What we know:
This protein is of the alpha+beta class. It has seven helices and 19 strands.
Amino acid sequence: MALHRLLGMKIGVPAPARLDSFYREIGLEGGEGCWGGAALPGQIRICESPYRQLRELRVGCEDEADLSAIARRLDGLGVSYRHGGGALRLADPLNHWTVVVEPVEPLDVAAPPRRALNRPGERLRRGERAEVIVESRPRPPRRLGHVVVGTPEVAKTVRLFVDGLGFRVSDVVAGMAFFTRCSSDHHNLLIQPGPVPYLNHYALEHDDIDAVARAASLYVRAHTDAHVDGPGRHTIGGNVFWYMRDPSGTFFEYFTDMDAIVDDDAWQARDDWALEDSWSIWGSKDAPEVLFQPGDIEEVIAGYRKENG
Ligand SMILES: [Fe+2]
C-alpha cells in the first residue's frame, strides 16, 4: 500500500493562453488549459491566477485503504482534509497548495522505439544514418515527472508530505533540499527553501538524451532568452537535464534517465550531500544563481502576500 504515481499538477498564471501556445509548440497534446504527453493526457492543467503559482498536485495511491491510512496520519499531525468520493483532498495550510490523492491503477508510458547506437565493440547501426538525424520531427515529451517547490517552511512541509501523505525521502542536500518521491522515480517533489511558497520548476520526461538535447536545442534557438542551464547530468537522481524558462516565467526541465527506486528498503537515502557536489557530474559545475533566485521572484512574493495576507 503506497503512493505510486504523480498524476499531475495545476498551475495558475496570469495569461493561460500563452502557456497553451507553449505546450502546443513543444509537442504536448491537449488544448485550452489541459495538456499532457500522448499517453497521459491532462497531466498539466492551467488556470488563471494573478501571479504564477502551483495550485494543485494530484497523486495516485493503490486503494481506498491508502486514503484511510493517510487520513489517520493527517489526523495525527492535526491537519484537516476532505476524504470522500474516492479521493482525499488536502488544503496545505503551510503553502496553500491543494493536494489530491486518489486510487489509480499502476501505469507507465510505453517504451519508446529504441535507437540503434554504435558503441565500441557493438555497432548496431550499420550502413544507416542516425535515427535522430533522419526522424522527421523531434520526439515529444512523454510525461510530467517532477515538480520542484520553494517554501519558507521546509521542515514542516517535508513533515506534511512525508509523515502525512506518505511521500518517501530519496536524498537530502545540505539539510535543506529534500528529494521526495510518490513513485519509483528518484524524485517527484523536491522541497527546497524559498522566500514564499512558489513553483521553481516542473520537469518533462523525454525518451533519451538525444530527445532531450534536440528538443531543448530547438526551443532555445527559437527563444534565445529561454535557456537556463544544460545539458548536464545531475549527481542526485542521475538524470540528464536541460533547464529553460516557459513564457509564464516558471522554469521547466527536459530530463531523461532518472534513477528508479523499486525497493524502498534497499535504497539508501543520503542526507549528507554537500551543496557543491550536488548539481552535476558533467555540464555546469553548479546551478546558475537564477535558478534559486528567479528574475520575477519579487512579483511572486508580492502576489503571494496579496493573496494570502
Ligand atoms: Fe528537476
